[in-house]
From TrEMBL:
Spans through the membrane: 20-38, 58-79, 86-106, 112-130
Superkingdom of the organism of origin: Bacteria
Listed Pfam families: DoxX_2 (PF13564)
GO cellular component: membrane
Key words of the record: Membrane, Transmembrane, Transmembrane helix
The keyword Lipid metabolism belongs to this UniProt entry's keyword annotation: no
InterPro entries named among the record's database cross-references: DoxX
Cellular localization per UniProt: Membrane
Topology versus the membrane: Multi-pass membrane protein
Record protein name field: DoxX family protein
Organism: Ktedonosporobacter rubrisoli
């Protein structure tokens, strides 16, 4: 029953799983880039008019900046092979942001619309978990 795993087998991932993770990472990056850039470029008064619970305009801009940074963190470290341990951190950070967004949506009376940020949070967490090997090799 005891299996011996050689050091060459540790930390490896199947090609199919790697392709799946990259595909999901790119799709998440596109979503978070679009939403983040929208929060950074749309006039604050227009953004605030769409929110069920008002928050400071600078905070909305900060959230947009975090989303853009997270999107870049999902892609650039793996592409450049520089600081690849940042990819799982970006995934966890975006997952946390989406859990908070779901709570905000529920408090604002969103009900079922809170499912979308929760689904995004789950997908971000799966990417972070799938790329956890990056952090252990740092």
């Amino acid at each position: 029953m005891n299996q011996v795993i050689s050091s060459s087998q540790q930390g490896t991932m199947s090609r199919g799983m790697s392709i799946l993770l990259w595909t999901v990472q790119v799709l998440l990056a596109v979503v978070f880039l679009m939403v983040g850039v929208m929060k950074l470029s749309t006039p604050v008064d227009v953004l605030l008019a769409q929110m069920p619970i008002k928050m400071p305009g600078l905070f909305v801009r900060f959230i947009g900046l975090c989303e853009v940074a997270g999107a870049l963190g999902l892609i650039l470290p793996g592409l450049t092979r520089i600081r690849r341990e940042l990819t799982p951190l970006a995934g966890w950070a975006l997952a946390l942001e989406m859990v908070v967004a779901a709570g905000y949506t529920l408090v604002g009376g969103g009900g079922l619309t809170a499912l979308m940020p929760l689904i995004l949070a789950l997908i971000c967490a799966l990417v972070a978990y799938g790329r956890r090997g990056y952090a252990s090799r740092a």
